[in-house]
């Protein structure tokens, strides 16, 4: 009976031990699957982050800017889409709408997230990566065992074995899978409510983040003709035919990087628009600006109650009371209306210029292969009865107005990029000087000098006026040549020599020679100045505001020259 009792006890203990071992193996296998899955996912994300690190900047947004110390292991690693303010301490794109602390941005730019995180795609199956990971682990373990056996037997050296036997296989597999690993992830916007403390916005929805783009519109108010051009990103969808012979020179990006670049483009457009809008109405962060600065801003702007051409408006420079000292980038503006996302100014006495932010989709749609990346221009469909006088483009052809829209877009982003780069370099040099200079008691701190405004909108208005005015002047010169030949029966030709200036220069100058008449004519926006020096040393200068005034002046001078002969 004792032996029987012991046999029962031993069987019971063995069954309990077997049950414990089975439960432990089940738990370990379950944890092994979870660990393999998480390691595979992190391996995909880390590989993608390493590939994106060559072009984008990786940051820890939850770390904040006031925290001093190493980054915590559980902090989120995100991609910073801001181009200029990389240290998150002001300057760069925030140079025109910051307060003394340098952390505030405009309302529109604050709505655009400046960070993007990477996640595994919802439709991706990780089982293939788990199997490849287990296979690699087994190969490494078997290789290490063989190395130990060869080292004990005194065979081939371990260094050569590692160099030629084991490490070649993972390299081949990594190169073979590098082309597909980048397509396994997706990018999502990541919002921080307070960048200084790394506080996350709890009500943030990454799928509903609107993507913004900048639109320039030139309109002829009397006929309603409109030409538009939008600022687009430099990528195209990889599903729209990845041909290498792309005429536009656009890059083919993966879906996750398309979302990152779309966020960067949206933030750039919002900051650029706010910089132009601040030339008319200062942002809320600039409410503490001095009274002298606000009065000077009000003097540089004239508000119009009507935009119709039948109002017989003079040039914008005359409406705003522009003097001879304010030319080029400091040109005064004639404002029709100014809203939060739209600014409309008078370009010249015939056309108006509208700058506005429009939604180009959402961040969720930007990552799909079906996202539209069509052309950069949009035109309103015109009716068939163009001969009735409606929907006419005026003195400029539709193709010229479309080209002018694109030129003004290029000019605005070039000026903004140059201004932000100079501001960032200046802030970095000032910070270095402050760190090198030792603190001396209660010494007075110098007042921070605010960077000057880039005058982007004013430069675009001046450049547009110059393009339109120069075209009109060329038409006048051609008409004068025909007038001399047909009506005045004069065989002498008008000699015109244009000064070769840059295309985006707001000035244009040419010399006109007819018999003894030699005129130096310069165009600056919507103002034309004629200078004449005679043989007797007489100097005369006169300014005109339209091409018709120039035509009457030249006809009078030509008639005098013909009458003297």
Output the keywords:
565 residues; alpha+beta; 7-stranded mixed beta sheet; 5-stranded antiparallel beta sheet; 12 helices; 20 strands; elongated
Plain-language structure description:
This protein has helices at residues 2-52, 107-111, 127-153, 158-166, 168-181, 255-277, 291-299, 316-319, 363-366, 398-436, 456-486, 547-564, and strands spanning 57-59, 78-80, 115-120, 185-190, 192-194, 199-200, 210-220, 225-230, 235-237, 251-253, 301-303, 333-338, 342-346, 352-362, 377-379, 495-498, 507-514, 517-524, 527-533, 539-544. It is α+β, with helices and mostly antiparallel strands and 565 residues long. Strands 11-12-13-14-7-8-15 form a 7-stranded mixed β-sheet. A hairpin with a 5-residue loop joins β19 and β20. 29% of the residues are buried. The model is unreliable at 90-104, 158-182, 235-250, 285-293, 323-328 and 370-390 (pLDDT under 50).
């Amino acid at each position: 009976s004792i032996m029987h009792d012991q046999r029962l006890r031993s069987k019971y203990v063995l069954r309990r031990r077997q049950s414990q071992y089975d439960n432990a193996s089940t738990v370990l296998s379950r944890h092994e699957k979870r660990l393999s899955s998480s390691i595979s996912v992190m391996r995909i994300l880390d590989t993608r982050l390493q590939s994106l690190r060559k072009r984008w900047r990786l940051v820890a947004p939850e770390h904040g800017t006031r925290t001093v110390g190493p980054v915590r292991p559980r902090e989120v690693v995100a991609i910073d889409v801001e181009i200029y303010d990389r240290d998150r301490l002001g300057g760069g794109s925030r140079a025109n709408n910051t307060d003394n602390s340098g952390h505030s941005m405009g309302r529109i730019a604050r709505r655009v997230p400046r960070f993007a995180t990477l996640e595994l795609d919802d439709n991706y199956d990780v089982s293939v990566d788990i199997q490849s990971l287990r296979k690699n682990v087994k190969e490494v373990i078997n290789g290490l065992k063989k190395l130990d056996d060869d080292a004990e037997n005194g065979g081939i050296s371990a260094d050569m074995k590692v160099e030629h036997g084991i490490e070649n296989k993972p390299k081949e597999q990594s190169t073979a899978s590098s082309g597909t690993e980048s397509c396994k992830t997706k990018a999502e916007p990541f919002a921080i409510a307070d960048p200084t403390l790394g506080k996350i916005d709890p009500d943030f929805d990454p799928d509903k983040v609107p993507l913004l783009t900048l639109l320039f519109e030139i309109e002829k108010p009397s006929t309603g003709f409109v030409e538009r051009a939008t600022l687009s990103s430099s990528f195209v969808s990889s599903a729209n035919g990845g041909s290498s012979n792309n005429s536009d020179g656009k890059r083919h990006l993966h879906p996750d990087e398309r979302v990152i670049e779309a966020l960067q483009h949206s933030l750039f457009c919002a900051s650029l628009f706010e910089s132009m809008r601040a030339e008319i109405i200062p942002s809320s962060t600039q409410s503490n600006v001095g009274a002298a600065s606000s009065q000077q801003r009000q003097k540089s702007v004239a508000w119009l109650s009507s935009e119709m051409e039948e109002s017989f408006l003079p040039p914008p420079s005359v409406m705003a009371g522009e003097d001879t000292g304010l030319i080029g980038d400091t040109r005064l503006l004639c404002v029709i209306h100014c809203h939060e996302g739209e600014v409309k100014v008078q370009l010249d006495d015939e056309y108006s210029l509208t700058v506005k932010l429009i939604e180009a989709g959402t961040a969720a749609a930007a990552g799909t292969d079906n996202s539209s990346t069509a052309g950069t221009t949009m035109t309103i469909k015109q009716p068939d009865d163009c001969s009735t006088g409606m929907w006419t483009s005026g003195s400029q052809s539709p193709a010229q107005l479309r080209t002018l829209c694109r030129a003004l877009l290029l000019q605005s982003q070039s000026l903004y990029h140059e201004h932000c780069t100079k501001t960032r370099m200046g802030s970095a040099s000032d910070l270095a000087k402050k760190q090198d200079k030792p603190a001396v008691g209660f010494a007075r701190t110098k007042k921070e000098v605010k960077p000057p405004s880039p005058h982007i909108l004013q430069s675009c208005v001046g450049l547009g006026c110059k393009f339109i005015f120069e075209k009109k002047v060329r038409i006048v010169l051609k008409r004068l040549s025909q007038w001399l030949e047909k009506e005045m029966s004069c065989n002498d030709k008008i000699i015109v020599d244009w000064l070769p200036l840059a295309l985006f220069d707001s000035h244009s100058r040419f010399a006109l020679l007819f018999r003894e008449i030699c005129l130096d004519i310069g165009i600056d926006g919507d103002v034309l100045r004629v200078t004449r020096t005679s043989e007797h040393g007489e100097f005369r200068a006169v300014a005109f505001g339209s091409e018709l005034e120039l035509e009457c002046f030249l006809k009078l001078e030509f008639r005098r020259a013909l009458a003297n002969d």
